[in-house]
Specification:
mainly alpha; 3% strand; 146 residues
């Protein structure tokens, strides 16, 4: 019962955001660690594809049961959020070069990496705060009922 209640909220979508941002943060930190490694090419996760998958999942969740009680195509998608987030979204890809390749073959950009890390942390914090608020509301409802 609790699982179906949680699945009816935004918590499953926010879990995917937290997973994605956690993996991306590790990857960005790795890029920073290899800043002086010759021929190292920066990697990243496919951020735009993840955003599109998130939009698709949200749209599917909004298309809940129809007024006559039948299920829309989107409502069946609500049953499995995972179908919107294939494993490829969580696999690193070579990041497109943002600047000139250096003589050592590296395509580093400290400024861009740090900026991406800060944006990523902000997104993760936001998702965690919303999850916490949702769970606190659920806890309040349960405690009031008991």
């Amino acid at each position: 019962m609790i699982q179906s209640l949680l699945n009816s909220t935004v918590v499953p979508l926010l879990e995917k955001v937290v997973q994605f941002s956690e993996r991306r943060q590790r990857l960005l930190a790795s890029n920073n660690a290899h800043i002086d490694t010759p021929n190292y090419k920066t990697r990243d996760l496919p951020v735009e594809q993840f955003r599109q998958a998130l939009k698709d999942a949200v749209a599917a969740r909004l298309n809940g049961p129809l007024a006559d009680g039948s299920q829309s195509a989107g409502a069946s998608a609500n049953k499995s959020i995972d179908q919107f987030f294939p494993k490829e979204l969580f696999q690193p890809v070579l990041a497109p070069p943002q600047n000139i390749t250096f003589q050592d073959g590296n395509n580093r950009s400290v400024e861009k990496t740090v900026m991406d890390m800060r944006k990523n942390v902000a997104m993760q914090r936001f998702a965690i705060e919303v999850i916490t608020a949702q769970l606190n509301m659920l806890q309040t409802v349960i405690s009031e009922r008991a």
